[in-house]
Amino acid sequence: MLPPYEVVRVLDFIHGKRIRRITKSMESRSAPGLRDRLRDLIAGRDAAGPSRQPRVIEEKRGLGKGLPRSMRTEIERYIRERETDPEWFDECVLQARKAMKRMYALLHIRPSERAQMILFDENPPKGSKLHALKQIGRAKSPAEQARVIAEQRIPYRVATSVIKKMTPSVLAALIDVMTPQEVINNMGSLRRRGVFDNDDLKDLVEQKLAAAQKDGRVSAYKAKKAVEKAGVSKDLAGKLDRVTETKLKAKGEIKRPTALLVDKSGSMDIAIDVAKQIGALISSLCTADLFVYAFDTSAYPIKVAGDVLSDWEKAFRGIQAAGGTSCGVALEWMRKKRQYVEQILMVTDEEENQHPFFIQTLERYSYDLKTQPNVCIVKIGRGSNQIQKGCQQAAIPCDVFRFEGDYYALPNLVPLLSKPSRVELLMEIMEYPLPKRKPR
Amino acid sequence: MAGRTAGLPNQISMDIRKLIDKLATEEENFLKSSFLAPVVRGGSVCVRIQGIVCKFYPEDREFEGWGIFQPISLHRVRLQKPAGRPLMRKYLDQLTSVALIVAEPAGHPPSAILAHPAGSPVKFDGPIPGRLIEGVERFRHFIARFD
Fold first, then answer.
1. What is the CB-side half-sphere exposure of residue A140 using CA atoms within 13 A?
2. A364 contact B CB<8A
3. In terms of C-beta density within 10 A (0-12 exposed, 13-18 middle, 19 or more buried), how is residue A65 classed?
């Protein structure tokens, strides 16, 4: 079920929205520079003239169409469902007040008495979370604020916007209401505030990290990034690593022998960096062989001592992005060495320009080793798609994972590698129950 | 129910209630105490209450140097008196010492570089801005403190 802000996004797209923008005032600068004065002189305008005044621009966005009746009915149901449960309604308003108001106003839905008090009269009923939020704003001491936050379970993101002073008691209350994911995301800030120098607060954080291992909404990779970026102590880094490990293991185990081929040709620095991250990610999940090669026009076998990022950094130390691209060269080497794999993960921009080419080599490899490996390309940049096309023409199963800078998306590769076939993955998606319309 | 987060209000555990009360008491005790801290003109002073770093602003925004401060609220502190050298030394002795070389004594702020970058307990790229430095000449070695 979509959260309110996403529902409003759909509404605004259909109905359309007017956005007013004020362009930057040129007058706010202390004095126009030589370039500005020359530009004005060429344009034949006065330096202090109307062109330097801030301007209001009105833009129309969206389709500008009337909303379908069925959509209005469904959104009214959406709202009424929340109105009948005061706590749920309060949570929705806390997270997305503006979106909730817009749904009522745009679709002319009459709010319930309670919704009217909360959203339009600014008078939330006593005992509600919204009332508690006002209490936090009016509280005289941080300790009082902390008690309200903890008692009313005000979400961290909302609570931080109203607190006046970050004292130890407030910090304790905030950590208590944080979700495990929020604790991981804010690890650096917690360290800077000295949370790990207080035993009680450190215990609270550790409890959250223990909960993170079971929480389905925790991103696998963020804990790993927190270890790298936040500079936490060794024991805490160990706990964060355990979170990553548990979350990744839950995504699947790679039981098939796998080859990781990394394009190190000119300007492929990103490919090398991504390969290190992927290597650290999948090596702990591999129960079968994992062969790692970097290639330009030659193949460079890579031996990794462990399965943590530092081991991969060490293994890739001598690998520099340079040379032409021959995507088949590493596979040719594997064919000669008779290294058997059932899937190939290749990090590349697919701009191959030297022999041996990938598709021909893959066909030779398949014939010699009596295997038909799946190919998964982690595509870097917006180069050609010649390998994808070649795979299609040769009827070789090929998946493409487009990497566009989001390292947190890398764990999504694991299901592609852990499933025996693409059909099985598709069946799993098809088995997922679709949301059903609730009876009136 | 889909889309709904768990957690009911008023279900505060006894542990967190006790912890908040304990920390609140420490905050109140802190308000009755005084402390020594360095401050630059218009800047703030940082104090650890139960290990947590808290920032305070001196009432006299023009004061610069080492002072003994008395908190008047959880936002502001009042200067009681400037601190003497023995107290300053006691304070500095608790921090990590690093050997530096003066690079730009007349700069705003004056800057220095690490004298022994290889064995230094702190890592810094480029010049290090210095505060509350007195009577130094270019290329002179001196000991600075980091927290």
1. 0
2. no
3. exposed
Residues 6+ apart with CB under 8 A from A226: A184, A185, A187, A188, A232, A240
* Each residue's pLDDT tens digit, A11-41: 999 999 888 888 765 555 555 667 777 777 7
Residue type, A280: A
Q: Say whether residue A34 is in contact with chain B using an 8 A CB cutoff.
A: no
For every residue of A268-330, DSSP letters joined together read: -HHHHHHHHHHHHHHHTTBSS-EEEEEESSSEEE---SSSSHHHHHHHTTT----S---TTHH
> Which class for A117: exposed (0-12), middle (13-18), buried (19 or more C-beta within 10 A)?
middle
Rg of chain A (C-alpha set): 28
Instruction: Give Cα A244 distance to the centre of its chain.
Output: 15
CA distance A183 to A240: 11
Distance (Å, whole) CA A248 – CA B59: 52
Please give the residue of chain B at the shortest CA–CA distance from A192.
B53
HSE of A191 in the Cβ direction (CA atoms, 13 Å)?
15
How close is the nearest chain B Cα to the Cα of A106, in Å?
23
Contact of A166 with B54, CB cutoff 8 Å: yes
What is the tens place of the pLDDT at every residue in A323-349? Answer: 888 989 999 999 999 999 989 999 998
A87 touches chain B (CB under 8 A): yes
Cα–Cα distance for residue pair A101/A384, rounded to 1 Å: 47
Question: What is the pLDDT averaged over residues A260-287?
Answer: 87
CB A282 within 8 A of CB A260: yes
Q: What backbone torsions phi and psi does residue B80 show, to the nearest 5 degrees?
A: -85, -50
Considering only the beta carbons, identify the residue of A88, A146, A169 that sits closest to B4: A88
- Who contacts B31 (Cβ-Cβ below 8 Å, separation ≥6)? B71, B73, B74
Minimal C-alpha gap between A169 and chain B (Å): 5
Tokens of A397: 């199963």
Give me the residue from A1, A164, A194 closest to B3, CB to CB.
Answer: A1
- What ranges do the domains of chain B cover? 31-87, 95-146
**Three-state DSSP state, A142:** helix
